[in-house]
Design brief:
alpha+beta, Immunoglobulin-like, four-stranded antiparallel sheet, 2 helices, 8 strands, elongated
Length: 151
């Protein structure tokens, strides 16, 4: 036998529906704000005005970068436009996840056989290497490269 659908049941059904929707939205907002790493730049307008100039300087270097990971060692191969190892005066690199800074770690890359390497054990997932390499004249070359570690 089917029960009669009363006004009280309609009220409880609609109230329950909206309580669930609002609860899920609040939980998603909490987790989204809790994992946001913050700002990339302090003033996005100033950064946008400087972008093209920095890009032109970087392009003049003609460097090309390959990122590799064999399960034990991370390698950053920076080549000049002729395919030879680039003359990098200094390099500063960080590895982490793209969506949070919780796993960020500064890399201590060592030049070996024309490549910058570091022994590192990475857990499965997508990792992002952010680096700034400086040429002898001080020109900054910066990029983000991704590596996916399969389980």
């Amino acid at each position: 036998m089917i029960k009669e659908f009363t006004g009280r049941m309609a009220f409880l059904t609609f109230t329950g529906f909206f309580v669930v929707i609002i609860g899920v939205n609040m939980a998603m907002s909490y987790f989204a704000l809790g994992t946001f790493p913050g700002l990339e730049v302090e003033n996005s307008y100033v950064a946008s005005q400087e972008f093209n100039g920095k890009l032109a300087q970087q392009m003049r270097l003609g460097w090309r970068v390959e990122l590799g990971y064999d399960g034990k060692t991370l390698s950053l191969d920076i080549r000049d436009r002729d395919g030879r190892p680039a003359k990098v005066a200094e390099i500063d690199a960080t590895i982490g996840r793209a969506t949070t800074d919780r796993f960020d770690r500064k890399l201590s890359l060592v030049l070996k056989d024309g490549r910058f390497i570091e022994p590192i054990a990475l857990k499965p997932g997508k990792w992002e290497v952010r680096f700034v390499a400086r040429a002898a004249d001080g020109t900054a070359f910066q990029q983000r490269k991704h590596v996916i570690v399969k389980p």
